[in-house]
Structure formats: structure tokens, C-alpha cells
């Protein structure tokens, strides 16, 4: 027991729960060894008798009491750290559960694919084997008929030999002899032909050695591993080469440029609150300039929120902010220029002349890659559609227009009631409850897939927005597109439907969608034959 001096003269006995007792000797601590930084009882002192500084606790207590508050603050900080780790553990457990659900679906999908492919191979094999068998049976029948015919001819000739030799005249024998010579040649030729005609007695099965290796792998066909981060700055593996140097982030105010730094060259289109121009920045860099012409509909502050968000997002599949002009009107947002403009217009102009299905799948993969990055930054786009995807050279696409995008602290973002949205691209939970999330962006991505495969056709043709959202909520989904320049494969449509699952949790992740479309031909091998 130790005695703590309170503000009042009386002392309060405090139970230290054994903290004031030496574990080795069961005696109360009375000394502190500065050389070994250890508390000592009277028996411990014997082992520390040669130490230079061995103080009685009673003499140093006033000095140590001053350190208690500092220790308390340190403990409080550690407690906060443990709280953060507890939250992190819960989030990690949630993510593990979600990833388990994802891989369960993926393994189930792979199993279905394997079974379907084996069944298709089985049907194809049996059909081919039966055709080969029938073909060979016909050859055997032909050979059997030909040999039977030759045998009958020989029997006819042999039966005539006896009659001619016994009763025939000299003239008849001479004629018969000449006829038999010709017949003999014909029969020998027919038999030689049958002798060289090879027939099969067995149907065999052959398959590539890769299939044998695949079957021998057994349960090791698919391997599961954990992606675990450690204390080395969250790295999942040892770096073999230096990281590429990242351009330092500049302050937003440093992006300000003068009016004469940018030359407007060509008007590209009209936006909701202003125009979009192609221009030159400092006479060298091609840029796109978004202007605010009607500040009455949108405040300059709200307009610049898009620029501030773009300033934080840096990825090869996200349109990059270059500069802003805020000191004079009209306010400008200056971003990189992609030469082929909006994806919707690009698709409509092409009409399948140069864009093949492989290019469509690649574009879908690129967009999913950009959305994976936005998800990692806790950014919800809220307006993902072909109109807001820009196309550069060689069919490169990037996500643009962050007017409605928001950084979210929780899993969802609750939008104000007066927020506008493109209703045909909007998930049911967002349309009815104003609840947006990464999964509501997945729904919009599914509609974007429809735009891609139909070359820019408007979704839900012939239906008004209000009718769409109520019918969708009751289970209606757009049918598989037909009659377009490029056929819509069944696996492609299946993934559109996956994006349109009623419950957000049931929709796939963008990481899964990126992998699926980046490896579409491998993922759907045996299901789809490309059409150029």
C-alpha cells in the first residue's frame, strides 16, 4: 500500500493492485536504481549495492510526481491510438468480409464457367465423335459392298468354267478365255484398291497437355492470400526499384493565372452554367477552359469547389486540373484537353466504323480503373455517364466533370433535397433517399456500359425519367441490347445486370469490374467470339 497526500491533511489508502510489490521477493518497493532504471525492494538492493545511484522512493517522490501528468497525457494519446486501431480493426474486418463475399462470388463464377465450358466441350466432342463414327461406318459399308460384288463376280465366272470346259465348242472356249482375261484384270484392280483402303476400328480422345496440368493441380487451381500491410509505410512487399518521383502538390492559390496566360481558340460546347473552350496555356500547352457565365445560378464558391476537388485528385484516368482564374469574371477552370471530346459524341460519330468490341471492353476497363482510384480517395462521383467521360488519342478515356462529386467521411453521402441528378443513371437508393455511395456509382457504371455497347444510345429509350425510376424500383431492367453496330455478348450484359442489383452491397466492386474488362477475352473464353 502507498499513501497519497491529498489537498486535505487526511490520507487516503489506495489499492495499487500489487503494483507496489516486488514480483521476485514479495516485498514492498522502497528504492529506485537510477543505473538500472528499476524499482527495488530491500532484497533487490543487495544485487544493486555497487550501483552509484540508489535512491529511496520517499526522497524522489516529489520529483517523480511532476512527471505523472506528462505520463498521463502520453497514456491518453496512446489510448486514442488504440481507439483508432480498434476502429481500423473493425473496418478491416468489414473489408475482409466484403472481400470474402467478392471472392466467393468470383470463385462461384469461375466454377460455373468451368462447368459450362466442360459441358460445351463434352457436347462438341460427342457430336464430332458421332460424325466421325458415321463417316467411317459409311466407308466400311462401301468397302463391304465392293468386296461382296467382286466375290459374286468370281463365283459366277467359276460356275461357268465347268460348263464351258465340258460342253463348250472350241470357239466358245476361245471367247470365254478372252472375256475371263479382261474380267481378271478388273477384279485384281478392284481388290488392290480395297487392299489399300484403310479403315478405323477405334475413336480416340486427345487434348493439350495444359489441360492435364490443369486437372492435376486439383484444389491448387485457385489460391487465396491476404494482402497485409506492415509498419514499413504500409508496403505489401519489398521495393526492388526506387519509387517514381511524384510532383509535389502545390497550394490551390498558386494555380491562379492571369487572363493573358490563356488564349481561347475554339468553343467546344455549352455547359449547364457556362461554356467550354479549347485554348493554349502560355502558348504551349493545349487546354480546355470551363467558364462560369451565369453566377446567379451557381455561386463562384460552388463553381470553384469542383476545381478544388480536382486539385486533390491525381491519376492517369482522371482529367487533371492545370490552373484557375478567379480574380476577374468570368471565372475559369483550366484543365487538360482531350482531343476527341465527350465519349457519348465520340461513340455516336463512329457508329462502329473503327471501334470494335475489344476497344469497348478496354474503355470499360479504363473507366473502372479511374473509379477504383476515386473509391480509394473516398470520392463519390454521382454523375458517371458517357457525357462526362473524355476521349484522348488511341481510345484513351478519362473521367471528368466533378460538379456533383463529393469526398465522403462515412460510407454514404446524403445529398440535399434540391440536388439535381441525371435520373436515368441514378441508383434507386440515391433517387428516393438521396443516399449516394461508391455502390451507387457502380449502378451508374452499368448504365454507362449500356451507352458503350450501343454507341451512345440514350438509356431506357422511349421512357421518361420519372417513369424509369419507379419501374426500376419494381424490378425492371433494360434488356440486352440488340441491333447495334457491335453485338453485345452475354457476359457483358450479365455484368450490366450485376451493376443493377437492387441492394448496393450485392453490386460488384470497381476493382472486380476493372479486372473483368481488362481480361475480358480470357474471362469469357469459350463464351464469346469477337466480331470485328
Keywords:
532 residues; alpha+beta; Double Stranded RNA Binding Domain; Phosphorylase Kinase, domain 1; 4 domains; five-stranded antiparallel β-sheet; 13 helices; 46% helix; disordered C terminus
How would you describe this structure to a colleague?
It is a single chain. This protein is α+β, with helices and mostly antiparallel strands and 532 residues long. The chain has 4 domains: 2-52, 2-Layer Sandwich (Double Stranded RNA Binding Domain); 105-221; 254-336, Phosphorylase Kinase, domain 1 (2-Layer Sandwich); 343-523, Transferase(Phosphotransferase) domain 1 (Transferase(Phosphotransferase), domain 1, Orthogonal Bundle), CATH 1.10.510.10. Helices cover 46% and strands 12% of the residues. It is built from 13 helices and 16 strands. The chain has helices at residues 44-47, 57-167, 170-196, 209-216, 300-312, 343-350, 357-376, 428-433, 438-453, 465-473, 490-499, 510-518, 520-523, and strands at residues 2-5, 11-14, 31-33, 38-40, 54-56, 262-270, 275-281, 285-292, 321-325, 331-336, 379-380, 389-391, 397-399, 406-407, 413-414, 435-436. The strands form 6 sheets. A 5-stranded antiparallel beta sheet has the order 6-7-8-10-9, with helices on one face. Strands 4-3-5 form a 3-stranded antiparallel beta sheet. A two-stranded antiparallel sheet has the order 1-2. A hairpin with a 4-residue loop joins strand 3 (31-33) and strand 4 (38-40). It is flat and about 155 Å long. The model is unreliable at 1-10, 230-237, 243-252 and 527-532 (pLDDT under 50).
Amino acid at each position: 500500500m502507498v499513501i497519497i497526500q491529498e489537498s486535505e491533511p487526511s490520507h487516503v489508502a489506495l489499492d495499487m493492485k500489487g503494483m507496489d510489490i516486488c514480483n521476485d521477493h514479495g516485498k514492498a518497493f522502497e528504492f529506485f536504481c537510477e543505473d538500472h532504471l528499476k524499482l527495488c525492494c530491500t532484497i533487490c538492493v543487495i544485487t544493486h549495492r555497487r550501483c552509484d545511484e540508489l535512491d529511496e522512493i520517499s526522497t524522489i517522490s516529489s520529483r517523480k510526481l511532476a512527471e505523472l501528468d506528462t505520463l498521463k497525457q502520453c497514456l491518453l494519446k496512446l489510448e486514442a491510438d488504440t481507439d483508432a486501431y480498434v476502429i481500423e480493426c473493425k473496418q478491416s474486418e468489414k473489408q475482409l468480409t466484403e472481400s470474402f463475399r467478392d471472392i466467393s462470388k468470383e470463385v462461384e463464377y469461375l466454377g460455373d464457367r468451368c462447368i459450362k465450358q466442360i459441358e460445351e466441350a463434352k457436347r462438341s466432342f460427342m457430336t464430332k465423335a458421332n460424325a466421325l463414327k458415321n463417316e467411317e461406318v459409311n466407308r466400311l459399308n462401301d468397302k463391304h459392298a465392293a468386296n461382296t460384288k467382286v466375290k459374286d463376280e468370281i463365283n459366277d465366272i467359276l460356275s461357268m468354267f465347268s460348263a464351258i470346259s465340258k460342253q463348250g465348242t472350241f470357239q466358245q472356249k476361245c471367247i470365254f478365255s478372252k472375256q475371263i482375261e479382261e474380267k481378271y484384270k478388273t477384279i485384281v484392280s478392284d481388290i488392290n484398291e480395297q487392299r489399300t483402303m484403310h479403315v478405323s476400328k477405334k475413336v480416340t480422345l486427345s487434348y493439350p497437355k495444359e489441360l492435364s496440368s490443369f486437372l492435376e493441380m486439383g484444389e491448387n487451381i485457385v489460391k487465396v492470400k491476404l494482402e497485409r500491410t506492415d509498419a514499413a509505410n504500409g508496403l505489401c512487399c519489398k521495393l526492388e526499384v526506387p519509387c517514381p518521383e511524384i510532383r509535389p502538390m502545390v497550394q490551390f492559390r498558386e494555380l491562379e493565372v492571369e487572363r493573358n496566360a490563356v488564349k481561347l481558340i475554339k468553343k467546344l460546347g455549352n455547359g449547364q452554367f457556362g461554356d467550354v473552350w479549347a485554348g493554349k496555356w502560355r502558348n504551349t500547352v493545349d487546354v480546355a477552359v470551363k467558364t462560369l457565365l451565369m453566377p446567379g445560378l451557381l455561386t463562384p464558391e460552388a463553381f470553384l469547389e469542383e476545381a478544388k476537388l480536382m486539385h486533390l485528385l491525381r491519376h492517369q484516368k482522371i482529367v487533371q486540373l492545370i490552373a484557375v482564374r478567379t480574380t476577374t469574371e468570368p471565372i475559369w477552370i483550366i484543365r487538360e484537353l482531350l482531343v476527341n471530346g465527350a465519349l457519348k459524341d465520340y461513340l455516336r460519330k463512329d457508329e462502329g466504323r473503327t471501334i470494335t468490341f475489344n476497344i469497348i471492353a478496354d474503355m470499360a476497363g479504363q473507366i473502372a480503373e479511374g473509379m477504383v482510384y476515386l473509391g480509394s480517395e473516398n470520392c463519390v462521383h454521382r454523375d458517371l455517364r458517357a457525357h462526362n467521360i473524355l476521349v484522348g488519342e488511341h481510345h484513351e478515356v478519362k473521367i471528368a466533370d466533378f460538379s456533383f462529386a463529393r469526398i465522403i467521411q462515412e460510407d454514404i453521402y446524403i445529398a440535399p433535397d434540391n440536388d439535381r441528378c441525371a435520373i436515368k443513371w441514378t441508383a434507386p437508393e440515391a433517387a428516393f433517399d438521396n443516399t449516394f455511395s461508391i455502390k451507387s456509382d457502380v449502378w451508374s457504371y452499368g448504365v454507362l456500359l449500356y451507352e458503350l455497347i450501343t454507341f451512345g444510345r440514350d438509356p431506357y429509350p422511349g421512357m421518361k425519367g420519372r417513369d424509369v425510376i419507379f419501374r426500376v424500383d419494381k424490378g425492371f431492367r433494360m434488356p440486352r441490347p440488340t441491333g447495334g453496330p457491335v453485338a453485345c455478348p452475354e457476359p457483358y450484359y450479365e455484368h450490366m445486370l450485376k451493376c443493377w442489383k437492387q441492394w448496393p452491397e450485392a453490386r460488384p466492386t470497381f476493382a472486380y469490374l476493372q479486372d473483368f474488362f481488362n481480361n475480358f477475352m480470357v474471362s469469357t473464353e469459350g463464351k464469346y467470339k469477337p466480331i470485328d
